[in-house]
Amino acid sequence: MRRRILPLLVLLLGIASMPTDADTEWNLSEVCPAGFHLKDGACYLQSFYSDYVSLQSSGVGGLKTGLPLLREGFSAQQIDLGRLLFFDPILSLDGDMACSSCHQPARGFADGLAGSIGRHGEVMHRSAPTLWNVGFLRQLFWDARASSLEEQMQGPLFSQEEMANTPTQLLASLQQNDNYRHLFRLAFGESEIDLQQVYTALTAFESSLVSLSSRYDLYANGFHEVLTQPEIEGMNVFRSFVARCAECHTPPAFTNQQIAVIGTPEPDGVPLDAGVQAITGDASQRGGFRVPTLRNIELTAPYMHSGRFKTLRETVAFYTGGRGHAVPKGEHLSLHWHIWEPNLTDHELDLLVAFLKTLTDQSFTPVLPTKVPSGLQPVATQILTH
């Protein structure tokens, strides 16, 4: 009898020492985010565009063109864990910055600045791009130096000018937090937290930020009454072989995911940003940058890699100013072939702006946490104002 009791006591003591759901108020959602459906335990996008063939490699994108491949197939729990991590300053060395510091929901998951603010208040030399539809992108950062979200996020996490953390310190902060140990176990089924799990959770959340329900999307899928006549005319200008906007900003992703040298001016007194050339060493890519999506462009001013233009009207006007008109003296850039002189009228530029505003859609904005597992104050979770 004693031989039977002893193992039972050991088992009971072991169970008693293990964290249980009752040990913490924190749990993770088992429901996929809006726009996604659950299949075989993972979340997959539901979209009108799923029924269309993708022609992203060529053309200007028809109204019923398919989407690029999306990073998907994450569990609902992994996505929800990523949501909490995204707004939690525990990811930064000093506990005062989060991913959401530069990617704020109220500003289209950008930050409304020409140059984001660093750890010590210094101004970064490039703007923070939107994260809407970032899961569709094959290249990240303005200079396309990262090929995955997991690679991209390590830049700000471990940059001394930004969140300034280290891999060792990041893991220690999470491992020492009872709530996060519990939540990572729910999301990944393992007792130990590792860096790849952190990257996966953040990738899962960021890939769930899908914006495909704008008025343009309704129009493209047959609900033509949602756009006004000026907006339709603006769409026709956008897609025309005169303006050629859609050559680079190809619907429905509104980016062709390529590098373009367009000769946009830097802010006054700022030297030319070499862009992709600084990464590849290729002189033909000097001043080249990744073509950004135009989704939610109305919300993400100022524009261009340096935030040079404050308004959409200024931005579209740049493209009709003449080929290379803003290139600094002494610079010889290999401008993209479609940068030329379309000679658009003021009225056509106004129509373009009207059309670009039809791409605004934040209907699938995630629930913004009022508290985070670290106990710190969540960052940039203001109510949307648009």
CATH topology of the largest domain: Cytochrome Bc1 Complex, Chain D, domain 2
Radius of gyration, whole Å: 23 Å
| Beta-strand content estimate | under 5%
Strand order of the largest sheet: 1-2
- What structural category arises from helix and sheet content? mainly alpha
Q: Determine the fraction of residues in helical runs and give it as a percent range.
A: 25-40%
- Major sheet: 2 strands, antiparallel
Number of E-type strands: 4
Write down the domain tally: 2
Low-confidence stretches: 1-22
Order of helices and strands: HEEHHHHHHHHEHEHH
CATH class of the largest domain: Mainly Alpha
Global geometry: globular
User: In angstroms, what separates the terminal alpha carbons?
Assistant: 71 Å
CATH superfamily of the largest domain: Cytochrome c-like domain
- SS field, number of helical segments: 12
